[in-house]
Amino acid sequence: MSRFASLHVAILAIALFFAPQALAQVQDQLADATPARISDRLLQALAEANGVPGMGASVVRDGEIVWTGSVGHRDLERRLRVDRHTRFRLASVSKVIAATAAAKLQEQGALDLDAPVQSTLPWLQAGWAPITPRQLAAHISGMPHYQAIDEARGGVHYASVRDAVDLLRDRQLLSPPGTRYHYSSWGYSLLSAVVEAGADMSFLHYLARDVVPGLAIGADATDGADPDASRAYEFVDGQVRRAAPHDYSYTWAGGGLAGTPEALAQFGARVLAGTVVAPDTLRWMLQATTLADGTPVRDRDYAVGFGWRVSHDPDGARIVHHAGVTNGARSALVLWPEYGLSASLLSNALWVSSIEQTTMMLAVPFQLADALASASAAVACPLRAMRYQGDFDGKPLSGDVRFVHEDGLCVGMLSVPEGPFATWVNAGPQRDVGQLTLVGFDPGGGLGRAALVTPLGLYDLRLGNGDLGHVARLGATSTLTLRWQ
User: Which fold has domain 52-350?
Assistant: First the structure.
């Protein structure tokens, strides 16, 4: 054997000896660059910023669960961690499940959504003008939301939906049915009674059998014996404490369901796939409801369909969504029909947040993985930057910044100087923070696009035009620009 051949054999032997370790390192690096790794880092940073005890999120693409993230505790007192089986309160996200149940009954010929509820519920003793299920689902029935008389509503358990609806018989409508938009959870309590009449069974039973079969979604049991149910928390003077018990039997449909992040995202995926209601049914559910004068129903930046809210994400893609807030919970479900994508975010404390925006940001790595990598690869992580300058709503802003490569991602920490920006950042009930995290989306370690992590949620930070640097829209009216120095 020649000296060259002997050397080649020796090198090959060394390579084979170290191959498993080298392969493991390469696999670890590749794992760090996956969309799941990015979303995990975002969720962890969010929990550190907002102080919420526990959160869970999930993304389903084309019917397949591609990511579930869990962070924090479902029970602080017993130090029990959140995991994929943890059930959180869905709050008002319950409404889209209830609305889908009503639409399914219409599809089956068991319910007329345009017939007065008074004809469907002959036992209903109320002096209202005729109200239809379609009006209830779109919040144009005139039904009120919670009022001062309802302050102690969570202290009583109602054995049936009918018993809960009986609370409403003396309520006055806020406007004639079909004439104005008034958000109303009580309207959904009434809608659930209509669903029971059409299904000829209890509301919760119909959901379990025909709307969410096999999914971990059902009546809230936060204060019960369910070992997987998260406890409910609240912020008082910046500190976390256990929230008072609350019984949601007065409105399972309006805000009383609970579920796991995976189950909620799977429900959304099934809706998109046409396995809960037919595609034609979903199409009309997503059309803007109209008032009696023909005006499309809108609230804030979205159109109001049959239960669902319809708008567009920052890239112009249509999204279908709903969010919720209640004692011990913030929740959101966002669907992208164009991408076959469904994303959920659930938490166990009531906190001020851009919850839909945050849910969208957690799904970005799965929505545009290839585009993100190619678009941001040319923008290097500014590892040498020590300061930043910019503006918040036109007011000058500057501070310290430090960037590092963390598991292949560009991660930055920037200080929050006193002033209008700090006031905005610390507007919630949680403890104040003095610095914020940036997490780049580029799996190659660049900073073409990133998430700005704040106590209020995740915001989209993108390259601006010219020398603007990076720009983020913070809510409907505020803008932040940052330039690294």
Answer: Beta-lactamase (3.40.710)
